[in-house]
Amino acid sequence: xxxxxxxxxxxxxxxxxxxRRCGAALPTEAEETFVGSxxxxxxxxxxxxxxxxxxGVPEGAGVLVVRRGLNEGATYLLTGDVVTAGREPDSDLFxxxxxxSRRHAVFSRTDDGWRLQDTxxxxxxxxxxxxxxxxxxxxxxxxxxxxxxxxxLVGGAD
Length: 158
Prior knowledge:
Blueprint: H1 5-8, H2 29-32, E1 53-55, E2 62-68, E3 75-78, E4 82-86, E5 93-94, E6 105-110, E7 113-118, E8 125-127, E9 130-132, E10 134-136, E11 142-145, E12 148-156
Parallel strand pairs: 1-12, 4-5
Antiparallel strand pairs: 2-3, 2-12, 4-6, 6-7, 7-10, 8-9, 8-11, 11-12
């Protein structure tokens, strides 16, 4: 099992982004035709995202795990009430790539969890491969900002 979808051999349903058994990211049709890897190698094993729960993090806390892009495998704990994301160096989540707008998106804490809002970015903000302007995130959602793809996880029991 682990992060390699071929190691699990679980048959996924069309449209699944992650293996339901082992949590590994599944390739899209476009990714299946590409040979090689994008970006640096993972800095370590990624948490299983099938459940959307990340152990060792305070219950209900939001976490972003880089699934594609620079620093693949890095985790970012969403703290405070507002987290800005963009190419502007003073962004809370600094994403240094031309596909990301200077002030691309904002994550806001609500009573129901974390909300993602696009701030009129040029390339848009996506949740589960659908362009969104304002979206309440759910555990296991895939967030795309520019060429960066994140798994959104929430803290749970150890």
